[in-house]
């Protein structure tokens, strides 16, 4: 596996992923609607809604990291956000099937659970929130991510393709920590104070590429701790007293969204926290 295609290579996470892949000796091609002067790899301008363009752009790649998407239910009409995200994921996976590409990593989101953007706010059924928790979105973006995950499962059933759908929590760069509302826990209630350092998000993508597992997996990619200076038990008691199904006692600022699945399957663990950057 030498040539990796990265869709959305000009995006926030894509730039970091491409840079790390190049450092590790991979050949990389970025597929995006725009070029970036930050990238030192081959760049192709591709409309992922055009299946022919996708097949042509992916030809010659050994694996794919699919990060291109509208990243929130903002800035576009609902139908466009949904259709863009779903169609692009289908086209990437269908093209991989046609070209015989066996490994695809796709960027999903914890928004699939539905908490973040819900019109009518609701609480988790239980904590910690793992991948078995029901996905109950009330809007187009979270729904598009669920459909993307199910599309991956379909291709695995049909072809045996190995697909990893990574449910990233809020991705934070080192420069962004100084602007984070660490001491204002009400700000991050709806994302369950869940975050991931962009450097750890990159390593989750690369660990997925290198995994020998033959399955299709949806995995939470989140930090070991919360984006708050409050202890987790205090956060839950203050902001979510209605959650009675607590399946563990949380030590210190331990994360509410579980990353145990990714640790086990990918042999990955997050290394960076906001405390290291404050």
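Sequence proposed for the structure above (278 residues):
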């Amino acid at each position: 596996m030498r040539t990796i295609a990265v869709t959305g290579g000009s995006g926030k996470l894509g730039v970091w992923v491409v840079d790390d892949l190049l450092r590790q000796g991979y050949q990389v091609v970025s597929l995006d609607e725009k070029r970036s002067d930050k990238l030192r790899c081959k760049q192709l301008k591709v409309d992922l809604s055009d299946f022919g363009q996708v097949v042509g752009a992916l030809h010659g790649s050994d694996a794919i990291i699919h990060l291109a998407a509208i990243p929130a239910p903002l800035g576009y009409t609902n139908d466009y956000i949904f259709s863009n995200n779903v169609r692009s994921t289908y086209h990437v996976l269908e093209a991989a099937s046609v070209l015989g590409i066996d490994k695809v990593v796709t960027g999903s989101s914890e928004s699939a659970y539905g908490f973040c953007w819900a019109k009518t706010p609701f609480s988790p059924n239980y904590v910690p929130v793992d991948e078995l928790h029901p996905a109950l979105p009330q809007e187009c973006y979270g729904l598009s991510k669920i459909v993307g995950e199910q599309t991956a499962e379909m291709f695995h059933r049909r072809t045996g393709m190995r697909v990893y759908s990574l449910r990233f929590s809020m991705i934070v760069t080192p420069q962004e920590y100084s602007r984070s509302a660490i001491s204002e826990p009400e700000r991050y209630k709806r994302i369950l104070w869940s975050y991931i350092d962009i450097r750890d998000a990159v390593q989750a993508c690369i660990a997925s590429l290198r995994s020998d597992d033959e399955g299709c997996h949806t995995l939470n990619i989140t930090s070991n701790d919360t984006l708050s200076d409050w202890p987790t038990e205090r956060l839950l008691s203050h902001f979510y007293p209605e959650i009675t199904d607590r399946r563990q006692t949380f030590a210190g600022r331990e994360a509410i969204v579980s990353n145990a699945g990714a640790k086990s399957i990918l042999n990955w663990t997050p290394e960076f926290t906001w405390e290291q950057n404050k």
